[in-house]
Specification:
There is one protein chain. Helices cover 85% and strands 0% of the residues. It has 196 residues and is an all-alpha fold. The protein is elongated and about 65 Å long.
Length: 196
């Protein structure tokens, strides 16, 4: 502060917030991130502002404040759109979808995951595409719409196999098994569970 280095001050505040987050001290994390956010806005650092807004969304979510989390993610999304950051837009749409999913607003979650999917496909982010497909499948599963859930899980599985990601392959197989179980198709459920 004494040097008048606003960028440096913001960076230090952000790092203090991150350190407190690692310690599980989210109240101090929140305080430091908010102070850093003010500086980012003062100096016109839109990329930094949007990143901090997203981080604030995570922290207030951990504090059990989903509506405030949504507000931060929506602000971050708006800034990402202003600066044309497609990767950031898709990630914030997915974050918003996750909050909606966690609070049981499955249709709104689906809408946001589907928007994220379109962008991830457009920019060629296969990991993002597969994650969106899993999230969409989960949304349909939560709505009791098992055939589209199964279809999305299977698409994600194919991508994870192409990527050679055994952990996520197992996750997709487990999700497929769960849908078969919910459909009362126990043999395919068992087969998929055994492959995980």
């Amino acid at each position: 502060r004494q040097l008048g280095d606003k960028r440096g001050e913001s960076r230090v505040l952000t790092n203090l917030g991150i350190a407190h987050a690692y310690l599980g001290d989210y109240q101090h994390t929140l305080k430091y991130f908010q102070q850093s956010l003010e500086i980012k806005r003062d100096i016109g650092d839109k990329q930094g502002e949007s990143t901090l807004l997203g981080n604030l969304g995570v922290i207030v979510g951990k504090l059990g404040q989903p509506q405030q989390s949504l507000a931060y993610y929506q602000q971050a999304l708006q800034v990402k759109r202003e600066i044309g950051d497609q990767f950031g837009i898709s990630n914030n749409l997915a974050n918003i979808g996750t909050v909606y999913q966690n609070i049981g607003q499955y249709q709104q979650a689906l809408e946001h995951f589907q928007q994220a999917l379109v962008i991830h496909r457009k920019i060629g982010n296969q990991r993002g595409v597969a994650t969106d497909l899993i999230n969409i499948g989960t949304g349909y599963q939560n709505l009791g719409q098992y055939p589209p859930a199964l279809e999305h899980y299977q698409q994600a599985l194919a991508i994870y196999r192409r990527m050679g990601d055994p952990r996520r392959v197992g996750m997709a197989l487990s999700s497929i098994g769960t849908v078969y179980y919910l459909l009362g198709q126990y043999q395919p459920a068992l087969t998929h569970y055994q492959q995980t």
